Amino acid sequence: MSGVTRSHPIKEVLGNLAGLKSSQIQSLERLYRRRIPVAEFCSHELASRLVELSSELRRQIAILVNRAGNVEYVIVGDERGVVIPELRDYPLGKRVMRGLRFIHTHLKNEPVSEDDLTDLSLLRFDLLAALMSAPGKNQIFAQLAFLATDQRGASTTLDPIVPLERIDLDCVHFIPELEADLEKAVRMAPKAMDALERAILISVTTSGTRQEAEDSIAELRELARTAQVEALDEFVQRPKTLNPRFLMGEGMMRDVVIRAMQRGASMLVFDQELTPAQMRCISAMTELKVIDRSQLILDIFARRAKTLDGKVQVELAQLKYLLPRLSGRGVQMSRLMGGIGGRGPGETKLETDRRRVRDRITTLERELKELSQGRDQRRKLRVKAGVPIISIVGYTNAGKSTLLNALTKSDVFTEDLLFATLDTSTRRLRFPREREVIITDTVGFIRSLPKSLLGAFKATLEEMRDADLLLHVVDASHPRFEDQITQVRTILAELELGDKPELLVYNKADLLGDMKKKNTVAFLKVRQSARTRNSVTVSARDRKSLKPLMDELQRRFWPEDKDVTPI
After folding, report:
1. What pLDDT sits at residue 335?
2. What angle (nearest 5°) sits at the alpha carbon of residue 284, between those of residues 281 and 286?
3. Per DSSP, what are the bridge partners of residue 29?
4. Going from the N-terminus, what domains does the chain have, and what CATH number goes with each?
5. Which of 232, 146, 148 is nearest to 182 (CA)?
6. Residue 240: pLDDT above 80?
7. Beta-strand (E) ranges in 205-337?
8. What pTM does this model have?
């Protein structure tokens, strides 16, 4: 039995003290005066006293001992177990072990339990010991468990129950060597060269099919890659109902955290947006960083924004996301709530944090309004000039920027990453007879786009309001391309742009040849969809394939022209 409660001042007896006499509490307090020889995990005298007190109180008693042999915590439980307090004085940080050994009694002489081993794994104790007495004999028995390394990383090792005097363990050498082995296992684990964090990805959903859940976590994996987070493992769960505290069941949540410890992960990333309460509950169970899909996207945007517009909008979205999630741990302003790569500057007063965040939000909204006025003036000049305006829209990584570069012979940044383009880019696209259009590349869309982010980017996406045509770019090679089309159209409708004229452009035609060989049904599905939607199929990497698109644009804007557009 374990859990996390608020830590009491040091040197007080913690836990279940109800019904105890003052003399009994004083006996427990005197345990703090004991000192164990540094080479021993527990002296025979102290072990006998713990078993004696436990038998008298009919409750389990635990002590947490540091490496100098000092008793740092005395905890009283019930017959089944003890509740471990929050160990603020012994944080893990980047250490693989806590620096404390957990020694407790078992009333019924039962061996170390699964809950004990879970505590050992979760809390990273130097070692765990269960003390018990032989029925009718004046002899103390003990069973030890400790962390070890195997092919998966960290695991637990359980020794047999033996008389206390037979345990020959030199803690001065054993614990540092054990810690060194664990650190080496974590350090030597294969790691992506550019990874800032190592994470376990988690998806918990009650809606949709199993395939949809798998597709969503595959997209989360790509988001993680974009954020330079190495995905070590994935958990997908589809329960009948969501756990209000942990999203998944508490037992499953513990399994995930233990798996994270075994693999040397530094972070848990949830595919679903966590409520502030869920974030606190999960963070209380583990000292790993805990973020959700929204925070991951916001972190990517924070590093991709280059223009003043983009930076202001991203910071505004981050703070709006952060405000309801502020708790006593304070605002970590250097990055998003200790997001990818860092934990921020530390604790400050909660109300001061909230006031600072609200003041900053007000300042950013005012700044964004001023920037929006400048954009509005530029848009009015373009509209007044009577030049047609095209906005390129689509799912992230569909090839929008690559298409803009190919059409206009420009060099907007492109990369095979989600949200490679964040800031709006505007270029002129020339046609014969001195005709031209203004073509604008916009940020890509994605399912479950954070509302705070969508709201903040409305100012930039206003560029699309004056568009005469939306060029909806689709990754034709993606197995869920139709779902992506639906997602983009849903977001456009939320932005009140659903009634804009649209031309579907099925991109990445160069990849369809391989698709035809591997999956003829999928290939035919793309062909049929492109035909029925009156779309244009291109490869943005091959300028020769763009001629049908240019012809279609010329036909839409200047239907009287008969010239064939060169490309």
Report:
1. 33
2. 115
3. none
4. 13-188 (no CATH), 197-293 (3.40.50.11060), 305-380 (no CATH), 386-557 (3.40.50.300)
5. 148
6. yes
7. 229-237, 267-270, 289-292
8. 0.72
